[in-house]
Amino acid sequence: MADDGWSRALMAASGVPVASDARDDGLRAIVMEARADGLSRERVIALAQHREPAVREAVAARPDCPLGMQATLAHDRRTSVRVALASGPGLAGSIASVLAQDRELSVLKALARNAATPRAVLGRLAEHRREDVARLARRSLDGVVLGAHPARVEEIEERPRATAPPTAGTPSPVGERAAGVLAPRPSVPPRGGARPAH
Which spans does this entry mark as compositional bias, Basic and acidic residues (predicted)? Predict the structure, then answer.
């Protein structure tokens, strides 16, 4: 790779906008259209058959993706399209059952993390032979909120529990000390104010 190629790759990886050719701009515009609200059903169907996987991924992730398109995209040859469908908020229960038989672990994990996945499908995934898939499905069944990004969700967060604020007489969780009030924070005089004499 030439020096210019490394520079462009570094800039792109760091989020710096890089000049691109007209083809990239055209594809980006179609992907943005596929994600846009208010698209007609006919246009969604047309975009779901686009040759570029990024466009099909955008359609698969739509909350209003039609059931017929979901059935087609569930058998897409590109794993990334099936992952987008498995993690989509509009996933139909019958399509979740089809995706639960996918051979790709990334599809199964996305399905296990999705809040739209029916409990029956999660129950089948909880008994999967791969422990990482089964663990994710069991956590979803137990009510743990899993991250939303399909490509790289590693951290798991539990739903916050409602707790009463401690009162002055309540014992501290770190020992037998009573909960108290902290001292006020020290204040710093504003800049340009009077300085103390030395």
Answer: 152-161
